[in-house]
Each structure stands twice: as structure tokens, then as C-alpha cells.
Amino acid sequence: MTQDAVLSIQGISKTFGKRRALDGVSLDVAKGEMVALIGPSGSGKSTLLRSIDGLQTVDGPNGTITAFGTQVQIKGKVGDKVRDARIRIGFIAQQFNLVGRLSLFSNVALGSLGRIGFWRGLFGRWPAETKQAAMQALHRVGVSDYAGQRANTLSGGQQQRGAIARALVQKAKIILADEPVASLDPVSARKVMEILRDLNKTDGLTVIVTLHQVDYALRYCDRVVALKAGKMVYDGTPANLDKTKLIEIYGPEFEDVFWEGAPQ
Q1: Can you tell me whether residue 116 is helix, strand or coil?
Q2: Which of 40, 42, 96, 47 is nearest to 212 (CA)?
Q3: Cα separations (Å) of 158 from 98, 167, 245?
Q4: Is 75 in the same domain as 188?
Q5: Sign of the torsion angle spanned by Cα atoms 137, 146, 109, 211
Q6: 156 and 179 part of one domain
């Protein structure tokens, strides 16, 4: 683990049956980085993200994941103090993971459960600090006008912004975003990526985002990590990720869909 790393992944692998989803992946992420994880479907991107948060255990006996100096995983098991790390890691899923029958405000306020206690949150007895933080977060991502509306009545883009606001109330220092724009229209997708970029640049949050849209990875992220068949095949700047390398990652068909104006 390098001195400025808030996250260190060392030699992790994960097998599902006969398929190797991750194969000896090692990666250090420094505080304040915005990292895109790209690669073909099934390359291991989501498995890696879930492993970082301890939602998916990796194979033992080798391989470790450490966040903020706390062991999230070691020897194929979740660490004893994983909760200490999770409190500072916000997870944003493709399908938003909001409780549809609750208001957007309540969903965002749920980000404070790690600090105020489960039962108090269950009955909606939010402290004044949580109420203020929730409204500030909703305003920050541009959906405060919908605070009282049930989450399942909102658009996908509005729900995803609510999920980001929940991570802000959680006071997350790392945001893991798993295909956060995959189910959104282009305008909503750009807005979500712009919010993540602003949180990274303005607030210094570390952001790791999996993307199928390679152009978004090149436009919004300072560092790109590519996986292919569970192995890390690229780790560098967007500027050095040229068309030849992208075809190597995705296969020859990638050239047929290569977008106008991309690096040649």
C-alpha cells in the first residue's frame, strides 16, 4: 500500500464455478482520484467493486483489500472491522437501490444510519443534523424540489441523484459507482457524471466508477483501469488509452462502434 493510498487491493481473485471473474488483481487508489473501471461485459468490473465494499468475498488464502488502513478482506474472509471502513464508503448501484415507498428525503436520510442507529432511522426520528444534511445534499445534486415525493414516482436520473445525495449524508470519503448511468438517458447520464466529477474535484472525494461508455471514462476520469477476463490489462491516463489499445481490450468489433472524435 502506497503512502497516499486510501484503498489498496493486493492479488485478489474470485471464481464462480469454473469461471475466473477476477484473476490476481492489484490496485492502489490515492485520496482524491477519480478512476474509471472499463472492460467488456463479464470482465470483472462489478465483482471488483462489490469486493472493495465487502459485499462479495474473494478467494482465499491470498489476496487482501484495505481501505483507510482497515482490512476489508483477508484470506478469503471479510475483516472483523469491515464496518469501520464501510461507513466511509458509499455504494451507488445501477438500479438506484432506493426504497420506492419512502420519500426521496427519507431515502437520503438513511445515509445517516451508521451514525444515529437503525431503530431511530426505521421510525423516521431524524436528528436535526440529519434533516439539514439531507436537504443540503438534495440541493447539491439538484433534486431538493422532489424531497417529499415517493422515490418510485421519480425518473431514473432523479433517483440516481438521490442515491448520490444519500452517500453525501453518509459522509462517504470513497464513492463506488457501479454502472450508475447504464439505464439513464444521455442528458441524465451526463448530469450524473458531472455531479460525480464535481464531488471529486470540489470536495476531494475518491470516486471509482464502472462504465460501459468509454467516452465518459475518457471525458470525466483522470485514470482508467481496464479489466479483461478478470485480469487488469490497462492502468493509466485517458490520453494514453488510444484506439489500438481499446480494440485490444474490447476486440475487433470495437472499431465498428468507435465514436467520432475519439483518440486515434
Answers
A1: helix
A2: 40
A3: 11, 15, 35
A4: yes
A5: negative
A6: no
